[in-house]
Specification:
Elements lengths: L19 E2 H8 L2 E4 L5 E2 L1 E3 L9 E3 L13 H4 L5 E4 L10 H9 L5 E3 L3 H15 L4 E5 L4 H12 L5 E3 L9 H6 L8 E5 L7 H9 L3 E4 L7 H4 L2 H8 L11 E5 L3 H4 L8 E6 L6 E9 L2 E8 L2 E7 L4 H16 L4 H9 L7 E4 L4 E5 L5 H13 L6 E5 L9 H12 L6 E4 L4 H9 L17 E4 L3 H11 L5 E5 L7 H9 L5
Parallel strand pairs: 4-5, 5-6, 6-7, 8-10, 8-11, 9-10, 11-12, 12-13, 13-14, 18-22, 19-20, 19-22, 20-21
Antiparallel strand pairs: 1-3, 2-7, 14-15, 15-16, 17-18
Helix pairs in contact: 5-11, 5-12, 11-12, 13-14, 14-15, 16-17
Amino acid sequence: MILFVFILFVRKEIKFMEQITIKDIVQVTGGTLLCGDENKIIREFSIDSRQGSEDSIFVPVIGERVDAHRFIESALKINGATFTAEHSASDEDKPWLRLQEEDGKGKPWIAVKDTVEAMQKVGTFYRNQLSLPVVAVTGSVGKTTTREMIATALSAGKRVFQTEGNQNSQIGVPLTLSHMTAEDEMAVLEIGMSERGQIETLTRMIRPDIAVVTVIGVSHIAQLKSQENICREKMDIVKGLPEDGMVFLNGDDPFLAAYRGKLEKKTFFYGLKEDCDYRAEEIRYEDGQTRFLFCSGALRLPVCLNTMGEHNVRNALAALAVAHQTGVNLEKAAEKLHTFCGQRQRIIAGERCSILDDTYNASPDSMKAAVNVLSSMKTEGRKIAALSDMLELGEEEKAYHYAVGKYIAEKEIDTVIAFGELSREILRGIKENQVVGTEEQGSSAGRITLVYVETREEMTQWLLSHVQPEDVVLLKASNGMRLSAVSKALQAAKKEV
């Protein structure tokens, strides 16, 4: 079942699909034109009945809770055409005729078997009209940051289009494709999944020349049952590559490293291990920056990032590796990466404390990566991790939370505060695996202070009552736990007088 989501589309001063007519769309989708001008040009999709233009075609999505076909008539007050999977020429009730009589315009209605599939076919058709090389990025963790870094590095020598926001789904990818133009020299597209077969569908749609896979984690393990299955699904990305396509894999990930020598496509591994084709050496953290040497063969290039953590080093390695293989000047690419700040993990200097806001989402791998960043930071105050549940981890969810806690127990963290039933396991993992604290803390106390609260509001109040300006607070959990509200409260709080 496809989830029904609204994507609020903000129109920009860019070109959209060009010279695609209703006739083209009917032919590509195998649909039936119920009414309207077949020569009308369509330039974009609309999946929100409240958004669009006379150049848009409305795509009514059938979701778990809402069937957007009921919004067709209101959508056509804004949009110039519509798909429909619930009407046919044989219908006794022909609402398109009634609307034509009312407004005298007769906007096109195209009957198709599946509206999302129809949108995907049009997206594929449009992609095939463009000759620009495409980089496709997937993975359980880090695909958005890696995509953004690749686009940044490539922009040193090329005009680059990239996925807008998080439009990486069965609906988001065709939306993204419709915004590419002939003026773009390369595109970097992010593809995600929630069910089996979706990576293959998307990669065959976008026909990438280069595939990048970041990490094989446990996101969607409830559906796919094992990391091995997740890996196989993610590696379906290679099915859309041409014969001369290239694959870039994280060589530090054991599931991806296992593909060494097994792929027919030209394959490069990036990471920290010595056997990686592109690797980082001499990693160090200074003043909120990460410095390392980008190495490949005899190549040694100093790189400075304004982001923290080994995971961002790997993301940058992927970006520079792609830039190297596509002929972009590496020194200029590294200079571009120095300007990259990212969107998912932000360091915010508040009056009450410094905030490491990583509240967008969470998995065991990204939780550990965020903890690593906090642990590596130099501060005169305390390092406080404010955590909550990681969702959709399946039957082993408690074990994954416990493992995160066990991992934290070995890090330079002063305090962990948590709420949520699953986060109790994080605290248990810390408690049962950390070393005994100092004499001042008491012989039975652990080195890390542990605090459990029942609600998000209690977490907010505890932090506001205990933090000092020199402290750094990491906020990390799945988006559904809404730790972003805690971040906003800390940012808004004024320094105590």
